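Sequence only, no structure available. Ideas?
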Amino acid sequence: MHEHDYIHQVIEPIIIYYKKLDVNNRIKFVQRVQYFASNFEFAGIDGFEMTDEVKYLLCCPLTQITFGLEEFDMHNFSRIVVTPGVFYAPRSQLYMKGGTFKSGLVMISWDNFYEGYLHPDDNYNLGLHEFAHVYKLCIDTTKQFDMHLQNLTQEWEKVGNEIFLKMQNSGAESFLREYAGTNPHEFFAVCVEYFFEVPQKLMQTYPELYDALCNLLNQNPMNAGGNYYHHNAIGRQQEVQTKPKNISLEARSFEPSNYVLPFLLCGFFAVCGWVPFMYLLDHQLISITNTILIVVALGLSFYYFINATMGYQSISNKFNLAFVCITVLGMPLMMLALFLNSNITLNEPKSIQLEVMKVTINTPPDPDKWRAIVEYKKGTLR
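Reply:
I predicted one. Tokens follow.
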């Protein structure tokens, strides 16, 4: 049996989200499950036996959360450890059902994980909860990701923080369970559970919150008949993209193919920028050192800018943004300063006046040879 068919047989009876997809999107879901299963390291402890079926099911909530993303690699997480039931965490000195750690480890209680799919509308799903932590930690710990995702994250934090602070300050009963008020990380994870398990209730109670999650995850659970595509932002009339480009969690490592085009474009701009400076250099209006420095600075600024626009390196990084702004905005000021420093009036003709002080002609004995000595003082350049 082909692996894709086997994955389908394992997850189809259990994962309701998967059941509502059409054929093409089921293929996409299965392929993503296979990708995660082959890239994560799985281990069972305390007597739990790790099987392929368990691996595929464990990858389903992460696939579900990232289903609307084009780039979905969880670069900071590599290991999933499964226990039969609740486990004791020495650091927190608590018995836990699951845990997500910045070291790249996710721990799951299998009994509680499986129970979450037996009751798909009770607002409790351990898999969605823990992998929501993975998703959010990847955003928080990634210094470079595309600006579109950054804007969506800021939108979520603005809306979510208001509700979170109300839960903490008022102490009144909330639609979200009490655990959501523990800290912002748990608030996000609980919201993701409600988002997928009771989307209509969440939208009715907190429309802006639901809207922000639709945008951040680029999917709409209420549109199950349309493969969860996010056509419109719920709660406002603004039209949004069905599939925003380059929504990526991945901090791109150095890959030559990613940098060929930026380097070529930067070279093109550097060559084009060299032409006007050659004119200035030829007329002795700028030094060769200043010319080289300015062209290199222009090339670097274009490099960072092109990388940012292509999603390879975020211009939101403070250093990159400051470098681009200083270089691009400072270039006209630098050129103006060079012209002013040269004391050149562009609208008047240029001439050089030499004041001849003395001319002495010495005639040697050989009349065929002579030399002239000219003494002069330089005039002013105007």
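Residues 256-282 form the longest helix (27 residues).
Hope that gets you unstuck.
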